[in-house]
Structure formats: C-alpha cells, structure tokens
Amino acid sequence: MKKDEIFVPLGGGVYSKCKLLDTKKFLVMTQAGVFVDKSPKEATLYLEKQISRVDKNLDLFQNQIQSLQSKISELDKQAAELHSKTKE
Predict the structure, then answer these.
(1) Which helix (H) or strand (E) covers residue 27, if one does?
(2) Over the stretch 19-39, which tens digit does the pLDDT of each residue have?
(3) pTM for this structure?
(4) Which of 11, 25, 26, 78 could make an S-S bridge to 43, C-beta 3.0–4.6 Å?
C-alpha cells in the first residue's frame, strides 16, 4: 500500500482502498452531528479526548458491575439463609 492510500470502512467488514487527497485537513463530526475542518493536530486531540471519555465510561461501568456482583452475592447468601431456615 502506498503512503497516500488508506482503507475506508464501508460497513459489514467491507473496505475500499482510497487515495488521500488532502492530509492537511480532516473532517471531524462533532457531537451535534456537524462536520468541521480540523488540522491533524486538532483531529488527534479530538480523538484523544474521545478515547479518554470512553476509558472513563468503561471504568464507571466496571465499577458498577463490581458493585452489582457484590449485591448479588449478598442477596444469594441471604436467600440461602432463608432457604435453610425454612427447611428447619
């Protein structure tokens, strides 16, 4: 693959080999769904912020999963105790 060629995802695991026409500007879609021109540095910063946001959400979800697992474990113990009392 040449330096100015990239693979562009078309969906469903299908890619098209394309030639970059402009490497000084990148189109970035904002959260409002609007495209804006960004320099390579600005586009990189934008992506880094997106990655940071995803990492924070991942940490949050993992903490919530741990908390839910602890609650489930506690409820399981309580259910086992109630079950053993009803057998007596």
Answers:
(1) strand 26-29
(2) 989 989 999 998 899 999 999
(3) 0.65
(4) 26
Question: How deeply is 43 buried, as exposed, middle or buried, from its count of CB atoms within 10 A (0-12, 13-18, 19+)?
Answer: middle
Structural domain boundaries, residue 65: 5-87
What amino acid occupies position 23?
A: T
> Tokens 């100015």 sit at which residue?
4
Sequential DSSP letters for 44-85: HHHHHHHHHHHHHHHHHHHHHHHHHHHHHHHHHHHHHHHHHH
CATH code of 59's domain: 1.10.287.370
CB 27 within 8 A of CB 19: no
